Amino acid sequence: MSRYLTPTLAGLSPYTPGEQPQDQQYIKLNTNESPYPPSPAVVAAVNAAEVEKLRLYSDPACAQLLAAAAEYHGLSPDEIMPGNGSDENLFFALRAFCDEQHPLAYADVTYGCYSVWCNLMHIPSHILPLEADFSIDPTKYYGLNETIVIANPNAPTGLALPRSAIEGILKSNPDNVVIVDEAYVDFGGESCVPLIHQYDNLLVVQTFSKSRQLAGARLGLAMGNAALIADLNRVKFSLNPYNINRLTLKAGEAALKDTAYFDATRQKIMDTRAWTAKELANRGFSLTDSRSNFLFARTDRMEGGALYRALKEKGILVRHFDSPRIADYLRITIGTQAQMEALIKALDEILEG
Ligand code: PMP
């Protein structure tokens, strides 16, 4: 670091993303991408004519994408804002609804970026520990005088709260924004989008990175009351008006319209998840009841870090977290059936060898 860096940034521990090897050397089960390619409709939409238009700026209003998203979600376009990944929308939301006087409440353990962004923006964190079984007790979020963010399903535990539990939190916090991060909701969670017209303090954030095969395109949607969305647009237009590039706008629109492909691929992931969970349980692993495109699993037979390294040596990348509470666990993205069979085979070799 240079001597010019501000003390805040010098003291900050930046987020460490999961490993992203750029070759095909590994079976990659570490950052919850889809093992399937984008819909053929996406491939067709990102065509040469669109590439030619890259010399022009993209539509800052993202009108065509918003029209498709509004139709899909039963909302109006002014109730939706696209972000460069849900990360950008979450960052914009924290910028809009939190500051030094307005803390952010969130769980420990949850998505690691929440705490990093709080540190970056001088936002005090109010950390609410998970229960012993890793669940979230919604009543602990009642009546907080703070902005709240809940990943539902949570990461890396995969556990989901029913919509009614989030509704309790919304009702008991009428003066605070409740952000529900639904990155994994399409794999068996219950979305809060249907509550948007009832609660003006609800902001739902979804992503195209997991269930729509577009992690590399960087696209997410923030959805909520039009006034909340106007607040987010205030941040976006101050910082990065062209936050969604032309190719991603086209890809996102096509992905939203191909509902058959979306449903077929997420169903395949859920089926493969059930198969993998059973195989792991048969081998004595403990697992949470994941509603996500990953499993959160541990075994008494080997420490989490050692098992992560042994799998990596066999060409399989999974995620291990240094955090003491979950150091025994691995987070394993659901890949194709063949990839999961390779994982089980590798585990058998490691644990029985
Ligand atoms: N929220 C959660 C809970 C996540 O796990 C992730 C990705 N790992 C994100 C948000 C960000 O996803 P993206 O920026 O790719 O949309």
Automatic annotation (TrEMBL):
Which Enzyme Commission number(s) are listed?
2.6.1.9
Q: Where, per the database record, does this protein carry N6-(pyridoxal phosphate)lysine?
A: 210
Q: Which source organism?
A: Faecalibacterium gallinarum
Query: Can you tell me where the transmembrane regions are?
Result: none
Q: Where is this region: Disordered?
A: 1-21
Protein name in the entry: Histidinol-phosphate aminotransferase
Q: Which GO terms describe its molecular function?
A: histidinol-phosphate transaminase activity; pyridoxal phosphate binding
**InterPro entries, alphabetized:** Aminotransferase_I/II_large (IPR004839), HisP_aminotrans (IPR005861), PyrdxlP-dep_Trfase (IPR015424), PyrdxlP-dep_Trfase_major (IPR015421), PyrdxlP-dep_Trfase_small (IPR015422)
Q: Which residues form a coiled coil?
A: none
- The first-level EC class reads transferase
Q: Name one Pfam family in it.
A: Aminotran_1_2
Q: Which UniProt keywords apply?
A: Amino-acid biosynthesis, Aminotransferase, Histidine biosynthesis, Pyridoxal phosphate, Transferase
Family as reported in the entry's similarity comment: Belongs to the class-II pyridoxal-phosphate-dependent aminotransferase family. Histidinol-phosphate aminotransferase subfamily.
Which co-factors does it depend on?
pyridoxal 5'-phosphate
Q: Which GO terms describe its biological process?
A: L-histidine biosynthetic process
> Which PANTHER family does the entry mention?
HISTIDINOL-PHOSPHATE AMINOTRANSFERASE, HISTIDINOL-PHOSPHATE AMINOTRANSFERASE-RELATED
Source organism, top-level taxon: Bacteria
Pathway stated in the Swiss-Prot or TrEMBL entry: Amino-acid biosynthesis; L-histidine biosynthesis; L-histidine from 5-phospho-alpha-D-ribose 1-diphosphate: step 7/9
Domain named Aminotransferase class I/classII large is located at 25-347
Catalytic activity field: L-histidinol phosphate + 2-oxoglutarate = 3-(imidazol-4-yl)-2-oxopropyl phosphate + L-glutamate
Q: What is the lineage of its organism?
A: Bacteria, Bacillati, Bacillota, Clostridia, Eubacteriales
Q: How does it assemble?
A: Homodimer.
